[in-house]
Predict the 3D structure of the following.
Amino acid sequence: MRPVYVIAGGITKFAKAHADKDFRLMVKEALDYALGDLGGKLTVAEIDGSVISYFSDHFTYQLKAGAMVQDFVGLCPKPHVRIEGGGATGGLCFQQAWESVASGRYEVAAAMGFETMSHVETAKGNEFIALASDTNFDFPVGGYYNGYYAMMVVRHMHEFGTTEEQLARIAVKNHNNACHNPYAQEHLALTLEDVLRSEYIAWPLKRHDICVMSDGAAVCILASEKAAKKFCANPIRIAGIGAGSDCMRFADRPHGPVPLLPHEKKSDYSSNLKYPGVHSFRAGRMAAMAAYKMAGIDHPLEDLDIIELHDAYSSSELQTYEDLGLCKYGGGGRFIEEGHSTLQGELPVNPSGGLLACGHPVGATGLMQAVTTLWQLQHSIPKHFGNDRLQVKQAKRGLIHSHAGTGTYVTVTILERP
Amino acid sequence: MPPEPRLPEVERGTEVFAVDPLTVRVHFEVDYIHSLKQDTPFFHGLARRKLLGSHCAKCGYKFATPRVQCMYCGGPTQWFELPLVGRVHSWTVCYFAAQEFLKEVPFTLVLVEFDGVDTLFLSRLVGVERPEVRIGLKIKAKFRRKATWSVRDIYFVRAD
């Protein structure tokens, strides 16, 4: 597989609803922004193919929406494929685009993702998302994603002593970061009190522990080394790719030993710890292992400079610190308390505000993470955000993480400034 | 002379939420003829007041939620009767829900663990609110008198 670079990106601001732009126009705007960033050197004519991602055919009446995007942005008669993978749709799209260039099939690929969730009321939206769980056994008892994630964190609290306050600290961090991100849906400078006093949705998750549904689109342009040099002054290399999966029904997950990262030892974990059970995400650990191996990362906390991970719930961020090996399993609560993942910490996580504050238009989210991480590593956040508050200084290596279902698929991609 | 061909006029107008941008109601409804196929015995079991799981004779694994093929050794599993008492492995109280279940909130979901069984079963816990609901609470199964032929035919209550 040959080296692949990310050369440009664009994001249509995530919003509760875009009254005047349909999914096709949102993607076109993001694509135009990306092409504009390259100064017009790259045009649609030089894009060899695309990977188009959106999660749900239920949110809008229109099926085969990917094909409508391809023609609207002017990419016909080039090839395209639609990628879907629950919440990991964007991350999977990015990795599919990587494969299309790494294999030699395309020189330049466009990864384009979108979602419009505003055509239905919130409870109906929750219902559609819940249909992405087992519809014979889990959905009919009232199972839905806020409930599943709540049950997972209840077990995490039992195993490791994680507290509601630790979860709230993550929500506070991400919401306050987002105040400086013009693309984020929410700009709420929440305090710990605000989060802890917000209403319970599914115990212990409160309103501010949960991301919002949005309309939005994001686009990344990926290129071979030759094409990257031709079109872009500061391309960023894709250094590591990993993905993993686990049982759709979290009730079916095994209870066994922890798959260890290179910097961990068997003695780090008690033999009583049954993994992953419902407290941790085996798919995330597998994805991290593969990506770290490919990128040559042995000590993630030291080797990485910035992370954008899938915080659909504040609890998912805490659990993901552990899956990524930033701390041991059980150490996520202390990790946030000690401030490691804040903007001032040694490894800022979700400087963009994450899903909690930016919103989660499912098909776009994983690509949004790729775009902001591209800008972090290019050191061009000030140019794109209009302020430098969120630029991680001298960022060289970043990680993006996209997560679906109850940890049913997870992708981890490492990006590196050459 | 025959009249000119024309489409008939509609009797009922379109429901409009907003004129600019033009936002209209579009209705969509589906009834499925849904077969439970190889999982059918589980649902028959509920109607006979039994909770059936899947046992892999080859590797010994016992699944509390049915699957007719073992995901570890690839062979077929056999149905077996689960005990009707278990413990709460995890729980939550839902104060909001998917649209279909909104009228039932608040309700308590539990993952049930059973002695000698490797995996868990997701169900409702009825009659136990916060702060009584906790991991380790002993619970027992109850069955609806009138079968709905769905996993909703079983639920759990406190065992003591």
About this structure: The radius of gyration of chain A is 20 Å. The first helix of chain A runs from residue 23 to 37. Chain A is about 35% helix and 20% strand.
